[in-house]
Every structure is written in structure tokens, then in C-alpha cells.
Amino acid sequence: MIERYTLPRMGYIWSEENKLATWLEVELLVAEAEAEAGIIPRDAAETMRAKAAFDIDRVKKIEERVRHDVAAFVTDVAETIGPEGRYLHFGLTSSDVLDTAGAVLMRDAGKEIESDLSELLAALEEKARAHRDTLIVGRTHGVHAEPTSLGLKFLLWYDETKRNRQRMAAAVERISYGKISGAVGNFAHLDPGIEESVCARLGLKPAPVSSQVVQRDRHAEYMTTLAIIASTCEKIATEIRNLHRTEIGELEEGFTTGQKGSSSMPHKRNPIVSERIAGLARVVRGNALAALENVALWHERDITHSSVERVIIPDSTILVDYVLHKLVDVIRNLVVRPDRMRKNLELTDGYICSQKILLGLIAKGVSREEAYRLVQGAAFRGREEEKDFRSLVESDSDIGQHLSQEEIAECFRLDGYLKNVGHIYERVLGKHR
């Protein structure tokens, strides 16, 4: 038997022991509700609660013969109860147990991921606050654009992660529905009150209407939410990987004592965890597609979804839990190199300030087309002649007709690019955090 705390929490949730224990709890709660309703004898329900147990190996052995997992489980448990075991699974179909227990497991797994997201939020907020005024060049299309704040990168990821936590909470709410409505969902052999009682005791809501199964749009929403979370993690990891590149070198993954970056090249320090995160996100997205394929089933139910869900739901929740833990470690242990950021800011010799010159000319009455022509001409000429942009602007007589040397110098001050960063932080974090 698996002890509860010998596995990580997410691993325990999806263990065979916990799965079957959750099945058993559903079965016993149904029996107790049926006893309350006078459907089965009260002493039978009491005996079930006192004696019911299962043996994983015995269930598997029976399943080899009957080729049905729930039937094998019911047979095994009924044997431990004795004669009263005949009332176990009374009026139920397998999906009553599978889907109701599955909702409990998915809810618990989702709560773990919500907790992981809270940890990531804390790590991102810490870095955002620490680097609010750290200048870094912004890049669009991979090309230097304008200076910005390194902290804004973390703040952007923080805000997206906050939305992901909200999405996960909504997905957990949407999946937290059970069904105890029988073979085709019409309560032919059960009372709706049984379903209401069992779901309430499990912390679920009864599905307002079901077929033999809880409808799989709920599962698809849950799985696509996991895919979005994984994609956000990949987005963050991809930026870290790019800024880790030798030619950029502005951020690096932490490198521990004794770690090796390559079996053959001792100088290497590779962003291996970020790469791992980016790769695993692909698996989670692929699983989400499979969940979408599960929405359409034949009539009241077929089992094309069943085998798929046995793989994709545990795998995706475990993967996202793992990815989030790894990403938190990466963020907390990032090596930040402001010196390299400053060097890269100067790499283009002032060309990243071109828009300030453009707007300065427009403000002096020059048409936008003419101002753009003047600034672009100076920039392109400077690249060809390998001269710094500021000296070209200062010596350009056409630009000099409109902007003084002092006004040009002001255009090349980098701190002005951060003048409204505090306002953005207040929007995201509030004034008093």
C-alpha cells in the first residue's frame, strides 16, 4: 500500500491507491444515501462502511478475467464485505463512480496547480519589484527597438500568471460536478436525491443533466486551461533562453556547484531547465487537443474518451505541476546582468532613440513624412558609415534647423523611457503593495 506522504502531493492524487480509495468512498456514500432513502437496509450500509476494503493486486487479477476495471473493483470490495456486499453498486453504472471520483481527483489536482501558480506569482513579483528601474533594450522582431524596464518583463508575466490562476480556479469549479444518475442519466433506478447527497458530501455539485457520463466539454475546458498555463511557462522560458544566449547574455539560469553544461565542452552553461519547460509544454498542448476530441461521443456514451483520459489527465496535471515548480526555481535563481544590458543598450550607438528625434521634429512643425525621411536617412547613413547616431543627428543641418543641441541631447537620455513605469506597476500591483 502507498503511504500518503511517500509521494509528492500530485503524484499521490493520481496513485492507484488514491484512485481506488476515491472510488470506494463514492460507493459507500451512495450506499449510505440509499439507506437514508430506504432503498437498501441501513445495517447493510453500516456493514459496508465498517468492512469495505480493496486489494490492488486482487482487483488487477479479477480484471484480467472480467476485462472491466469497475466490475473487478466491485467484485473485490464485495468479497471483503460479505453477504451485505450485494448492495454495493446498487443501481449504479460504472460512469457514476468513474466520473464522480474523477471530478474529485481533478479538483484536487487543480487546487495543487492553483497553489503552484501562487508560488510563481510571488517569485515574479519579487523580481519585478527588484528590477523596476533596470534598463534593458526592448526587442521587436528580435531587433533592438527602444529601451524599457527589465522589471516590466516580470510584471507582464506576473499579470498573465494571475489570469492563469483565475482560469484554473474557474476550470476547477467547472469540473467539480458529479453524476449518480444511472446507465443513461435518467435516474431510472435511483432517486435524484441520492446524487445530491453524495455530491454534497464530496464537495461537488450534481450535473444538472447528464447522459451516462458527465459531458466532456468540462474536461476539455480543464485541459485547455492546463495548456494555456503550460504555454505561459514556455513563453517565459523562451525569453529566458533568448536572453541567456552568448550574444545577448543579459539573463542566465542559475548554475550550481558541480553542475556540468556539456559532456565535451567545459565552458558551457546552458539554459537546460528553460528548454525542458518549453519541450514539456508541447506535450500538454497535445493532450489538450485529445481532450477536445473527446467532447463528441456516440449517443448517451461510448468509451473512446476513456482510454485517452487515463493518460492525458494525470500526465498533464503532473507535467504542469512539475513545470511550475521548475519555473519558480529558475525565476528565483536567475542571474541578472545589468552590465551586459547597458552594453547592449549602447550596441546600436543611439539608434534606439530615433523615435524621440522623430517626435521632436514633428513637435516643431515638420510633417511626419519629412521628419521620418530625415531621421531614417541619418540612421541608414550611420549604419553604412559605422558612425554613432547621435553625432550624425547633431551634425545634420536639416535636423539642426528645428532642434537645438540641447534638445537633441535630451532625446538621447535613457531614463526618460522609464518615466511611466511606476504607473504601470500601480495598475498591476496596486498602490500599497
From TrEMBL:
Organism: candidate division TA06 bacterium DG_24
SUPFAM superfamilies, per database record: L-aspartase-like
Catalyzed chemical reaction(s): N(6)-(1,2-dicarboxyethyl)-AMP = fumarate + AMP; (2S)-2-[5-amino-1-(5-phospho-beta-D-ribosyl)imidazole-4-carboxamido]succinate = 5-amino-1-(5-phospho-beta-D-ribosyl)imidazole-4-carboxamide + fumarate
A biological process from GO: 'de novo' AMP biosynthetic process
This protein's record includes keyword Zinc-finger: no
MF-aspect GO terms: (S)-2-(5-amino-1-(5-phospho-D-ribosyl)imidazole-4-carboxamido) succinate lyase (fumarate-forming) activity; N6-(1,2-dicarboxyethyl)AMP AMP-lyase (fumarate-forming) activity
Pathway it works in: Purine metabolism; IMP biosynthesis via de novo pathway; 5-amino-1-(5-phospho-D-ribosyl)imidazole-4-carboxamide from 5-amino-1-(5-phospho-D-ribosyl)imidazole-4-carboxylate: step 2/2; Purine metabolism; AMP biosynthesis via de novo pathway; AMP from IMP: step 2/2
Gene3D superfamilies in alphabetical order: Fumarase/aspartase (C-terminal domain) (1.10.40.30), Fumarase/aspartase (Central domain) (1.20.200.10), Fumarase/aspartase (N-terminal domain) (1.10.275.10)
Protein name: Adenylosuccinate lyase
Domain of life per record: Bacteria
InterPro entries from the UniProt entry: AdenyloSucc_lyase_C (IPR019468), Fumarase/histidase_N (IPR024083), Fumarate_lyase_CS (IPR020557), Fumarate_lyase_fam (IPR000362), Fumarate_lyase_N (IPR022761), L-Aspartase-like (IPR008948), Pur_lyase (IPR004769)
Residues annotated as domain Adenylosuccinate lyase C-terminal: 349-429
Gene Ontology cellular-component terms listed: cytosol
Matching PROSITE patterns: FUMARATE_LYASES
Enzyme nomenclature, EC number: 4.3.2.2
Family statement: Belongs to the lyase 1 family. Adenylosuccinate lyase subfamily.
